Amino acid sequence: VTTDQAEAPAARSTASADPRPLPLAGVRVIDVGNFLAGPYAASILGEFGAEVLKVEHPLAGDPMRRYGTATKRADATLKWLSEGRNRKSVTIDLRQPEGVRLFLRLAEKSDVLIENFRPGTMEEWGLGWTQVHAVNPRLVMLRVSGYGQTGPYRRRSGFAHIAQAFGGLNYLCGFPGESPTLPGTVPLGDYIASLFGAIGILVALRHRDATGRGQMIDVGIYEAVFRILEEIAGVYGAQGKIREREGSGSFVAVPHGHFRTRDDKWIAIACTTDKMFERLSVAMGQPHLSSSTLYGDQRKRLAARDTVNQIVIEWVGSLTRDEVLAKCLEEEVPAGKVNSIADIFADEQFQARGNLQRFTDPEAGEVIVPGVVPTLSATPGRISNLGPTLGDATESVMRDLLGLAAEEIARLRQQRVI
Amino acid sequence: MTESVTATGTHATPPVTPPLAGIRVIDIATIIAAPFTATLLGEFGADVLKIEHPLGGDGLRKFGTPSQRADTYTWLSEARNKRSVTLDLRHPEGVAIFKRLIAETDVLCENFRTGTMEKWGVGWDVLRAINPRLVMLRVTGYGQTGPYRDRPGFARVAHAVGGIAYLAGMPKGTPVTPGSTTLGDYMTGLYGAIGVLLALRHRDLTGEGQYVDAALYESVFRCTDELAPAYGMYGIVRERQGSSHNDYAVPHGHFATKDAKWVAISCATDKLFARLAAAMGRPELASHSIYGEQQVRLEHKHDVNEIVRDWCGSLTREEVLERCYAHDVPAGPLNNIRDIFADRQFHARRNLIAVDEEDTGETVIVPAPVPRMSETPGTIRSLGPRLGQHTDEVLHELLGMTDDEIAELRRKRVV
Fold first, then answer.
1. I need a surface site. Which of A414, B28, B34, B287 has the fewest CB within 10 A?
2. Which of the residue ranges A94-98, B95-99, B168-172 would you say has the lowest mean pLDDT?
3. Interatomic CA distance for residues B30 and B182, integer angstroms
4. Is A2 on the interface with B (CB under 8 A)?
5. Cis before B178 (ω within 30)
6. Cβ–Cβ under 8 Å, residues B85 and B395
7. Which residues have C-beta within 8 Å of that of residue B63, sequence separation ≥ 6?
8. Mean pLDDT in chain B?
């Protein structure tokens, strides 16, 4: 099995045997979070070689095991199978004092701790930053919550949907004057917060290796989303201009949007510059449109937005999606299919880059999940296993990592501490 | 530049050496995707050299709304902490200087069409021979491999190809922009930073550099939770879901209030619905015989949503939210940028930083660095530089060039 995603066949089985050490080999991560906001950072670290211990409640485990589309495996939805990747599951009840002591011993032997409880919860259990930092001054702790660890709203419950709305993203999604819609997928804010979290962890590990000092990283989902809204703050601050929903278009360029084809599919066309529009007008067989007296200039196109869009709507509507795309690509117009997941599975680029990876779970059967992003040339990431069964590594972690005797482990189990 | 007042006070200077101090980054990319990686590295202390074409520079200077200095607000914000050096890579002397700079550099960020760097004689093989410890980030629409690698790729197209544009919008309606046309650029910049930091770690351990191959479409596709597994296992093609996530949970969506504003309410569990029912003053709705169970709510989603819609429509946004918060219901406003500027949480967390632009004195408000780190917080030391503002300084400092040599290069329009 090759680990070079770029050359791998589509949807292949991955449990890879590449001997090259990954950059995070030897780094131990405890993921005590639920769902995705924060835990996805652990997934990325795991893909690049970290050992990830998912600490879960002994009875229920991560609720993501039950959220989403069910499988034949009682403890795993498809969300869990895919996003629980590369983990070992360790059950510990943090509501019991003995569980807290076990957890602190794990923290002592770990490099990174990731949590996303409501701010104050870890502190109630005696597992706040002060406590974990005291047992392990080299520990890096990522804390993700809807509103961050500080500020007046810190205790409010903050799911991705709410935090994305609060951060300003959802207001911008949809048609002007109509109901704002979701920005494509619901947990987008969870993923984005996790990406910032992973960056924070990697930066903090570097600082830790240089100085011996760990630190705490605090991410509010709302601020992760707000950070990537380009000029919106600057323009409001300077001119008081409020960005509104732009439907399927763009305020800065025309034509730039989604257009329906004759076969009732959709295509995206993005003419950011005059040169791109010139190419499009050639593709449409109407090169005169890009003359300076007509619509050659972006400002003229913005002023005549509806007219220009109408020309594109009619042209696109007269052809099938494949025909429109072929003509656009021939003239190097930035254009692409608005892919459904069915289109994606049939797409040769997704196949060529190994974006879909196939696994067989003993109970759930064949599962196809998104591959590792980004692709590193010398140390490509790997998916070693899908979401584990609840507590699959409790025994080995208690015995090998914490040095507990078999009777001790049995007692803890019996008392439901683990 | 005075790094002045934020909405609530001054921006802290880091008490310790920044974690990326001593790392030099060359950002030869344009617009947002790969440059945002360099922005993130710069906030944590890397020295970022923005290399731009002598005429016009990075297109981001013109992308969006112009500031008083003519460069756009996005440029001023996102080119934060960078030093601008002009260099024409279409000129052989420009290429020679670029190679000398690469010898002094840890990270290179580029996002030209595939083959462009190679055409200029500065592809990966050449650069690695000059500096085997180099980490190179390459961002394109479709990646460096595969049948579409040479196609032009913008975030708009990447959202479409990566599958999230199809999901955004009202059911059966026109697919809409997923909130921001540059979303995929930023997300790829985030993945790029992760790749670069991983590669730096590998480099420090082994001495071996490498390149990171990031594709805009892959960044958005990776964040589609179980979209792919659900199609793979059951053939489920997810469609646009409007403002709600009603395949899993009800009520879960956006609701209009009496004052023509919007709130988001998300009741993922029965417990949360019971709280909402109490907040609405109708606790009986959460009884088992009515809508207490998710399965029943899913079956009657129109009726349940109608109840919530009517309730929200009878109150102002503030009233709805007060009642939701009082009962600990996950709810929040759909903030526009004016709401954000007025919000206490944004102020308390200093998410907005005011920086004075040094030429015009214009006060520019930009988003603060994310994430917040307890020991080594990110900093904004300067806004986006003027084109070529640091050319002389950098050519002196790194390559030991004299004023005369630089003047000659300028005359030949190499810099």
1. A414
2. B168-172
3. 13
4. no
5. no
6. yes
7. A252, A272, B31, B72, B74, B75
8. 94
ipTM for the assembly:
0.95
Is A190 among the residues known to form the active site? yes
Which residue type occupies A151? G
The model carries a pTM of: 0.95
Residue from B71, B106, B185, B270 carrying the catalytic annotation: B185
What is the four-CA torsion angle of A160, B181, B169, B162, rounded to 10 degrees? -80
Please give the angle made by the CA atoms of B94, B96 and B102, to the nearest 5 degrees.
Answer: 100
Residue A370 with chain B: CB contacts under 8 Å:
221-222, 224, 228
In Å, how far is B187's CA from the nearest CA of chain A?
Answer: 7
Cα end-to-end span (Å), chain B: 25
What are residue A272's phi and psi, to 5 degrees?
A: -70, -30
SS3 content of chain B, % helix, strand, coil (to 5): 40, 15, 45
Of B179, B205, B369, the CB nearest to A183: B179
Question: Are residues A336 and B161, on separate chains, in Cβ contact within 8 Å?
Answer: yes
**Taking CB atoms and an 8 Å limit, are A231 and B73 in contact across chains?**
yes
Which tops the pLDDT comparison, B11 or B249? B249
pLDDT in tens, A104-139: 999 999 999 999 999 999 999 999 999 999 999 999
> Which positions in chain B touch A169 (Cβ < 8 Å)?
179-180
Pick from A335, A266, A324: nearest CA to B165: A266
> Which residue's entry shows tokens 């240089």?
A210
- Chain B touched by A222 (CB under 8 Å): yes
Cβ partners under 8 Å of residue B92, min gap 6? none
Nearest to B315 by CA among B237, B362, B263, B363: B263
Average pLDDT of the segment spanning B277-281: 97
User: Cβ–Cβ of B212/A129 closer than 8 Å?
Assistant: no
Cβ(B114)–Cβ(B150) below 8 Å: yes
Question: CB-CB: which of B186, B328, B349 is closest to A151?
Answer: B349
Looking at residue A250, its pLDDT comes to 85
**Residue in chain A nearest B263 by alpha carbon:** A165
Are A6 and B146 inside 8 Å of each other by CB?
yes
Distance CA A218, CA A154 (A): 11
pLDDT tens per residue across span B222-241 = 999 999 999 999 999 999 98
Does residue A167 belong to the interface with chain B, where contact is any CB pair within 8 Å?
Answer: yes
How far does the CA of residue B414 sit from the closest CA of chain A (Å)?
Answer: 25
Grouping H, G, I as helix, E, B as strand and the rest as coil, residue B256 is strand
Q: How would you class B295 by CB atoms within 10 Å of its CB: exposed for 0-12, middle for 13-18, buried for 19 or more?
A: exposed
Among the listed residues A129, A151, A131, the one whose alpha carbon sits nearest the alpha carbon of residue A142: A129
Q: What is the mean pLDDT of residues A45-53?
A: 98
Q: What pLDDT score does B13 carry?
A: 53
pLDDT of residue A2: 32
User: What is the C-alpha to C-alpha distance for residues B257 and B331, in angstroms, rounded to an integer?
Assistant: 13
- Whether residue A303 has pLDDT greater than 80: yes
pLDDT tens, position by position, A152-205: 999 998 778 899 999 999 999 999 989 999 998 878 999 999 999 999 999 999
CB atoms within 10 A of CB A356: 22
- Asked if the Cβ–Cβ distance from B179 to A236 is below 8 Å, we say no
